[in-house]
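Narrative of activities, Objective 1.

The group set out to show that a structural description can be obtained from nothing but a protein's sequence at a throughput compatible with the screening campaign. Below is one input-output pair from the validation batch, recorded exactly as produced.
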Amino acid sequence: MNIINTISNKRFLLNGIEYLKNYASRVAGDKIEIFNNYERSDVLVPLQHYSEFRVDGVVFNTAAALQSALLSVIFSRGTLGNDVAEINQDNIFKVQYYFVDMQDDIFAIVNKINTGESFTVSDTENVLFSCLAIQDYFNSKTEKYLLTGLGKGTYGAGGTPITYENLTFINRDSFTANSDPRTEIIPFVISGTQTISQWLNTHTPALTIQSQADGYTIFKGTVNGNAMAYLWTGYTGNYGAGQLQSIADDFQLLDENIPTVVMPLLKYFFMALGRPATTENVAESLNSATGFQSTTFPRGFFPIVVNGLNAPVIFQVQENVNGIISIYQYLFTGGAGSWGYRGEYIGQLDLKLLNIRTLTISDIDGDVNTVTVDLGTVTDGDFLTAGNVSEHDFGDPEKAYYFVYVTNAVSYTQRFIGTPGFYGGGTMADFTEEMFATGPTSETPPVPDMNIVNSAGNTILNQITGWASALGTLVVSSAGFVFKKLGYNINIVGATPTGAHPAEVTYTIPAKTADDTFAMVSDVEGLYVPITGTNQNKPVLGDIEISVNKKVYSKSNDNSIENYLLFENDTLTLKKINTTNHHHYNFSFTNDGNVAYTTSDPTSRGITAGNDFSNIITDFDYTQKTYVDNYFNNYKKAVKVISATSYTLQNEDTSKILHFTANNPIVLTVPDGLNESNRYEGKQLGTGQICISGTSINVYSDDAHFTAGQFAVFGLDSYSTDKYLLYGRLEQA
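Output recorded for this entry:
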């Protein structure tokens, strides 16, 4: 065990011996190496498994977590000389305690921290969040997270909010009454039917229960002689007779026998050649047992069994895409159970990506789940012939198998991607070319060490060359990126704009659900149509073709109104949508020659006009209500009062109602020569009877030319030149 402790800003202890903080660490699989930052050949601790290190009293559950903890413990620029001020950092840990639910993910934990009790952090404190969840014997956990990226300040309700990026997972452990030194133990003895809540409420003197921020409180004692323990989940304060009163929900029954030993679970998977190890693909493969390098798995491999004592659970997945082998590490957050193929469904949200890195020869040498077969020197590079000489057991699907050999002073690796089993030796099937993928070589550029990063504080002055494949490299410098491939360079340069410009510009790549390709200006030149208004006096000179079921649309400034011109297969529709009340208004031209207006608005009046077109309407025009009203008003007859006892009809009387008011007999004469097709109407309003006379009058009833009394009405219709038909309430003389 390598025991490392911080002494000061400039020194640390390794197994009791002091060293200056001049050292860096490197991760290779599950192992870590510590070496002199300024002399690479000075290796303080050779590659060892992460479980063999204890840093400031903590044993970490992953190499990544150990690496993070070592950064500030074994290296400091303060060792460079007296001109660097001593940093006032006492490495004091401030622990904040929270009760969480078993199903809470990191986002739920962040919310409980931001809405929980306020707390302050000084400039000499680090913050460790201890999050406790208890459900039953096999489902209890205490998760610890380190606050990173934020320092001195006030947090919690009303303070500076944190995000999930500010929480670094440290470890997960089972919870017992003695698992935390800041846990307060309150003894009790109960007999009879009294509950723990009743015991506390009647206790004298009152008991003070500490704040959750100060630690957990455990009631530990006996009930009728049986050992019992309860976790306090209520509020802080003074409880007892005459003080605050507890309720049953303030207590969580504990099992004192919950084991404290947890075992990390690491599962190794190898994706099929060319299949990316994305979250979607990994989840799909775990649920179907397909898409992996191996098509057969040993008995018991699936489902993946996770018990309540496994923490953390990490899936390490290798991909081989375009000749590049990369390692993906996923933290599984689904909890206890049987998962994947033949078990419970693993969703993408159950997999949290921890890191991605390119496979190097150091990873192969340092990985306990990798088996290498050294073929020695292979002069012509024909590793298959050399490998088939002897029999080899490549049968474990959880192992990665490599042939390692040297050709022309260069070390090569070939990763086995075939079906697990026995090969070679003459008695088994021979290895073939399609069973292997090219791995890293000794010419792969090394991982940049701390000399580059620290050459000028945290500024990179020198270029960094990262290995991409056997055919290319990626060079990163202050000027931009250069991808060297097949003898030519592709330069990606971040040019500085001239003139006034903001200090920072963000280029956002829109989200896509399918593969796509970036286009250069030269690619689309001449292919796009400049829309009128984009450039003044540059109208569209050709047709604009719109695909079926596509639309041209606009929105109001507040997004409350959406207007569409929709091109459907057999219909052209003008559409308006009110996004506030969700009413739609459609004016459609259909393929059968009809024009339709539809709406979901019950207050709509249909098609209306803003002007009066009565004066110019023709026979084939659709009319407005005002036109119809005016038409009938124009043909409404006016009243013409006649008080004389004799009257001769006139052409203009056809538009009048004749009211005869005399109380003596009246003679109405119908002269010759009136317009044909006229209609005349009259009423006897007085007591004087009206006699209608004329040379060409035909009466509906024989010789009835007289009105039949006061208020009688009559009508006279012209049906030919000087010929009339008399009708109404009439009588003979």
